[in-house]
Fold:
Amino acid sequence: MLRILPLLCLVLLMLTGCGVDADQDVLCRKLIPAFEPGRVTDLSTRSYTEDKRVLRVDYRSGSQSHWIACRFAGTAMEEGRRTLVAVATDRSGWLTEMRFAMLQQWLRIKPPRDAIGGVVETERPQPTRWTPALFLAQQIINAATVACVYGLLALGYTLVYAILGQINLAMGELTMVGAMVTAMAAAGLGMAGWATWPPALLGVLVLVIGFTAVQGWTMDRLVFRRLRGVCSHTPLIVAVGLSIAYQEGVRLLHGARDWWPAPVLTGRYDLLSDGAFTVTALTAQLAILVLTGGLYAALWGIMQRTAFGRAHRACTDDIAAAELVGVDVNRTVAATFAIGGGLAAAAGAVIALYYGGVNFFTGYLIGFKALAAAVVGGIGSVPGAMLGGALLGLVETFWSAYFALAYKDIVAFGLLTLFLIYRPQGLMGQARGRGD
Structure:
């Protein structure tokens, strides 16, 4: 008997990895309401023999059978067994990166489930005549946070362009740096138990803005100041090089994996409801609006009430004449880069703490979209940057809500193309002649 006991233990140890992990099963079942609005029954779970990291849940909705598959970072015996990395359904296959990121955001608001982890079957009220209007109001609230991200970064683009007449394509990477630093700082706050303490979050925001402002100042001091006055595309090419250097530097230092900070300010408020649809807002959304409004008001005050603002406006009108009357052009331009970097960092902090999923490539597409917002609003105009961000946020959110999500980026850059063709100066910009 004693000789058989070790063999039995070995067999039991081997069998522990052959069943379905309960935690993975619960997590995968929680995703079903994101794809299936109706009642579901006959749930069963199994693992794939080809890949033990993939779990499949079969269920019935009405008279039709469906399934959802979840891939995790590890099996039941490995680290990362609770980390979801991909999701597939019988209708759409494996989700794209954007749809998976939105699913991760949806997962933070947990659907109801029973004691064994199954989805609770609930009856949904029928839509009323007010439901479309409430849905539209919800999309406006959702668009506000997107507009804040684009508007803050567009301000950075427009300040630099107004004073130099050049576009700093590396501004998006400053957003990425701000997002990565925010994610790391949030992880530190989580370990210290301060992840949801507002003063700690405010301290992280100030730290990130200061750090990235220094990055912007250094960028001008070491690179763009040496190219001032060059009448060629060299500064634009250098900006592209800086962008790639920032991306690869962060990838080598921190890896290519996504960072998902714990959600903060998750309070949820019901604003309007007709029984079938409820308009809701999060505390984080209100905080983002307050942050963006405060930064815009501070920027307006700086531009209108301070010596730097007067110097910036003078350099915007005629940089050579401003230098002749005693304006320190180098210091003014460096401060402009620093302010632009700080605004980009604020946008990155919003991305990290509200949307999550930041990595070394975060600033690439966001940067180009914010540039599109700046051009649409009138690059060089501070109010135009915020207006362009609001317009792009509305267009992108409404398209995602009412039409195919896969085409929202095409629509965003299509809007930029139309403005460049029919109104190249943007909504609030000034028409420029050749040589400007």
In short: The chain has two domains: 21-108, 130-422.
